[in-house]
Amino acid sequence: MKNNNLKTAIILGATGLVGGLVLQLLLEDDRYEKVIVFSRRSCGVKHAKLEEYIVDLFNLEVSSGRFKADVVFCCVGTTKAKTPDQDMYTKVDYGIPVMAAQMCKRSNINTFIVVSALGAHVNSSVFYSRLKGDMERDVLAQKIENTFLLQPSLIAGNREEKRLGESLAKWVMRVINPLLIGKLKKYQSIEPETIARAMVWLDNNIYKENRIPSDKIKSIANLNDRN
């Protein structure tokens, strides 16, 4: 007998570090019957629950007919080293999440979970933080019932591409993490698996805050929602 409570999820950014882990979790989770991935290249995964569409994420609206789900996990993002042009950076880190949120609103998708960044603020003097702040503001403006903006600190873990500056920063953070306690705890680096687990937990539980800083992401990931 079919369980009518099973969910369909959409993932944007499934070829990335966090998005790939979210995909793995959802494919293993019996609460989800279908996982739809929109990506610019194949995630290289084969699974009975997976539907994959290779699309131009900058023109995601052309896929509106397939944009039907219970939840959208938005894990897209780039870096200054990978995308030095600020206009292109804006199209990725602002344009894709905001367009996805607008499509959620039009398709009556009630849960939108997006990876932002610690320090995001519309009035920040730092381009990256200000862009993330603009993204958060315009995502929240869609008034999707369950909107969660995860604000991780430096994300640990190994990426496909080599980033010397980021690797050095991760090494430094491993050294100073134990010193960041109390109000500074949110600045500790965070594992991508932790972010992915928190995102899935948020889709299946009640949480009242929209913006979730790095230390609270860790706390959420450690919760056991299978009592």
From TrEMBL:
UniProt entry keywords in alphabetical sequence: Membrane, Transmembrane, Transmembrane helix
GO MF entry, a single one: oxidoreductase activity, acting on the aldehyde or oxo group of donors, NAD or NADP as acceptor
InterPro entries named in the record: NAD(P)-bd_dom, NAD(P)-bd_dom_sf, Semialdehyde_DH_NAD-bd
Domain Semialdehyde dehydrogenase NAD-binding positions: 8-107
Entry superkingdom: Bacteria
Bilayer-spanning residue ranges: 6-27
SUPFAM superfamilies in the record: NAD(P)-binding Rossmann-fold domains
Gene3D superfamilies: NAD(P)-binding Rossmann-like Domain
Protein name in the entry: NAD(P)H-binding protein
